[in-house]
Amino acid sequence: MRWWNQAGNRALLFQVLLILSVVLFFFLIGTTAFSNLEKQGITSGFSFLSQKAGFGIIQTLISYSESSTYGRTFLVGLLNTILISVLGIICATTLGFLIGVARLSSNWMIAKLAEIYIEIFRNLPLLLQIFFWYFAVLRSLPLPRSSLQLGDWLFLNIRGIYIPRPLPQQEFALLGIIFLLSIAGVCALKIWARKYQEKTGTELPTLPVSLAIIIIPSAITWLATGGPLHWELSSLQGLNFKGGLIVIPELAALLLALTVYTASLIAEIVRSGILSVSHTQTEAARALGIPQGKILRLVIIPQAMRVMIPQMTSQYLNLVKNSSLATAIGYPDLVSVFAGTSLNQTGQAIEIIAMTMGVYLTINLTISWLMNRYNARTLLQEQ
């Protein structure tokens, strides 16, 4: 009884019993599921990944054909999911920051427009917004022969957005190396300027020098190599455009909906983060004669980030998960082409759903880890 009377021992026993219960629960589910599959004549395992898929996909970032395997289909869906997630996070963060700052503008018109934007788009269901951009906007565009165009390089019609395709030449690798070295030089300059400011208290204007470090070597390399990047333009041939790059309507509609919806939520996060910073910080910066733009960039935003980052992490995770709504308009993401078409053709429900869940879990855990690392680094710098 003495062993039982110790709280630590009881807690350990309860934890062990809980773990055993969870393991037993999933073991029973697994054995029951595999038994039912055997009765239906469906073999379990991942051998189906080497079988021929036999269906096409409208957007692929890697080579793919109807003779490709289900494993290739998984990779295509995975890359399309990562593409829409990365683009959505970048666009939503940029737009959300702008709207959030505009929401606190001293200009009444700008602040009201930002408020109207937030209240409209954050209160409309995301799926409804996807349908709006796809069916009401993009599907009402003209046919290819009557395309809306901007010069000879951009064409917009019901089949998508046609833009020039970059064609890097052999010398382009040299330009990339020069650019990376310039970025490294700018980082070194920033570190030196920060240390100089800590020692002397004088802030050095590094922006002009940084631009010169990046632009001048890159421009010289570009001229010396004769322009190592060419462009392939789209042209109307018959009933459709050939050449260039195409942004399919499904991708454009999904990206617009995810960006507009998530940005409205991020905007409120930005607003709350800025308001969490004490007014005395702003007043002290103004008393020192610091311009309003620098006050926002150097005083308010760095302190507001500790409030904003945890909430923005949740929005990034939601955006990745919400991208699975792509199946409603036929965008070939992982859920559509792998957990949808591939599952219907193979019947390997357990394996396909487990792989799909594992992908989303891995992506979101990676985002959480990166954001937590950044948050910890921000808090460490403040201390």
TrEMBL record:
Q: How does it sit in the membrane?
A: Multi-pass membrane protein
Q: What stretches pass through the bilayer?
A: 12-34, 74-99, 120-138, 172-192, 204-224, 244-267, 352-371
Instruction: List the Pfam families hit by this protein, alphabetically.
Output: BPD_transp_1
Q: Which GO terms describe its cellular component?
A: ATP-binding cassette (ABC) transporter complex
Q: Which GO molecular function entries does the Swiss-Prot or TrEMBL record give? A: transmembrane transporter activity
InterPro entries in the cross-refs:
AA_ABC_transptr_permease_3TM, ArtM/GltK/GlnP/TcyL/YhdX-like, MetI-like, MetI-like_sf
* Family statement: Belongs to the binding-protein-dependent transport system permease family. HisMQ subfamily.
> What is the protein name for this chain?
General L-amino acid transport system permease protein
**Organism, as annotated:** Candidatus Electrothrix aarhusensis
